[in-house]
Specification:
The chain is an alpha/beta fold. It has two domains: 48 residues, RecR Domain 1 (Helicase, Ruva Protein, domain 3, Orthogonal Bundle), CATH 1.10.8; 94 residues, Dna Topoisomerase Vi A Subunit, Chain: A, domain 2 (3-Layer(aba) Sandwich), CATH 3.40.1360. It is 42% helix and 13% strand. It contains eight helices and six strands. Strands 4-3-5-6 form a four-stranded parallel sheet. It has a two-stranded antiparallel sheet with strand order 1-2. A hairpin with a 6-residue loop joins strand 1 and strand 2. Helix 1 crosses helix 2. The relative contact order is 0.08. May play a role in DNA repair. It seems to be involved in an RecBC-independent recombinational process of DNA repair. It may act with RecF and RecO.
């Protein structure tokens, strides 16, 4: 998008906003003009971003984002310490916690193995994971069902199984409200594999 007709600070704001995931130049322009018309919203947003950058860090145990180290999940007295769920990103922890079903601990990899993008095991938090397995009896792989997610889960399972740790994978299949007609073959196959008695 051509920002030549905009004052430089506005053009910089639009450019900065358009670098955010899912925000194209037109949406960035709309957001920029909104922020200019709502100075208090803009100030609050700027302060929140600066505060998050200053105060949020990775938990030294699970690598999730937190403002306390170790994080409240890792220090939670009611958490099942023999059960560890491995996820790709911090937002995955939030998704799992919303279900109120998982009572164990987490480990955030901050990505997946992706040779095409130059991401190998050493770029992930795998070494920290291997250092915190004492007492863990089961590891639940909760990676996304992508080629990279599957490769990462397979890599980790090969590391963990020789340690005598049970390695499981979350079930994949049709979403609630999904329609078989529109599902791809892999999704249907996974749904069949993950079937259970009712």
């Amino acid at each position: 998008m051509d920002f030549l007709n905009y004052p430089e600070p506005l053009a910089d704001l639009i450019t900065g906003l358009s670098r955010l995931p899912g925000i194209g130049p037109k949406t960035a322009g709309r957001l920029a003009f909104y922020l200019l018309q709502q100075p208090q919203v803009a100030e609050n947003l700027a302060e929140a971003m600066i505060r998050a950058q200053r105060e949020i860090r990775q938990c030294s145990l699970c690598c999730n984002y937190t403002d306390h180290d170790p994080c409240p999940i890792c220090t939670g007295e009611k958490r099942e310490r023999t059960l560890l769920c491995i996820v790709e990103q911090p937002r995955d922890v939030v998704s799992l916690e919303k279900t109120r079903e998982f009572k164990g601990l987490y480990h955030v990899l901050h990505g997946v193995i992706s040779p095409l993008e130059g991401v190998g095991p050493e770029q992930l938090t795998i070494s920290k994971l291997l250092g915190r397995l004492e007492g863990v009896q089961e590891v639940v792989m909760a990676m996304n069902p992508t080629v990279e997610g599957e490769a990462t889960a397979l890599y980790l399972s090969r590391l963990l199984k020789p340690l005598g740790i049970k390695v499981t994978r979350i079930a994949h299949g049709l979403p609630v409200g999904g329609d078989l007609e529109y599902a791809d073959e892999i999704t249907i196959a996974r749904a069949l594999e993950g079937r259970r008695q009712i």
